[in-house]
Amino acid sequence: MSAILKVEGLVKRFGGITATDDCWLEVAAGEIHGLIGPNGAGKTTLLSQIAGSLKPSAGAIHFDGQAITGLPIHRRVGRGIVRSFQITNLYKTWRVRDAVALAVQARSGSSFRFWQPVQSEKALTDEAAAILASLDMAALGDRITGDLSHGEQRLVEIAMALATAPRLLLLDEPMAGLGPSESERLTEQLQALKGRYSLLLVEHDMAAVFRLSDRISVLVAGKVIASGLPDAIRNDDDVKRAYLGEE
Ligand code: ATP
């Protein structure tokens, strides 16, 4: 297995709380790696340290063989570590194709400037249209993001993340708040990404995680207590005791 991401002994303390506590994790190139664990286990805190929005108290992160522990977010994005966008009010009045075009433009990382396009407007919108088409979302291109369903907005967030040409995509509970048919559609979309990107997927929807993931790690009280193939995780006694047994 060639690891694209290595998390080595990450500790993150918030005052008296240790949110990640000597946490070790490896994501292989091209795999979907599920990260599960009970509420408050430290999953979001771990993603934030990988994305660069939180600074570890101790430990190291390697991406593609190089230490990135101290890099700011935009330099990590430049190397291909991207956390899924959240459609906030900022994007609600935008046409879907324009929101994705903005993300295409953001790919130039730290040199990104709204007023200094790196590609012509037509090239940007054409590329955005191609990304939407590759995700079977061409029909949404002319819609206004704020008018879309939750599930469709989630798909646009993922399209925007993919538009930045990530090598490692970090997804934090993409199924949250979606109905069954919307989760089904998103699961299929994520399945279609397998092998083309490396994905670290934090998710409480166990059916989706077990269906999508090549491997799964289980975080409990800030520590990874097990990592392995979905079947091995399902049958792991420590995992059952600490987590799945509670379900
Ligand atoms: P959930 O599944 O409920 O989203 P999680 O596994 O993502 O939980 P985190 O959100 O990472 O867990 O939280 C881990 C612990 O760190 C919790 O005890 C939480 O209260 C604490 N924590 C997280 N962020 C902060 C913060 N900014 N300040 C203080 N404590 C924090």
From TrEMBL:
A molecular function GO annotation: ATP binding
Top-level lineage group: Bacteria
Swiss-Prot/TrEMBL keywords: ATP-binding, Nucleotide-binding, Transport
Protein name in UniProt: ABC transporter ATP-binding protein
InterPro entries according to UniProt: AAA+_ATPase, ABC_AA/LPS_Transport, ABC_transporter-like_ATP-bd, ABC_transporter-like_CS, BCA_ABC_TP_C, P-loop_NTPase
Domain ABC transporter stretches: 5-246
Signal peptide: none
Organism this protein belongs to: Lacibacterium aquatile
The keyword DNA repair belongs to this UniProt entry's keyword annotation: no
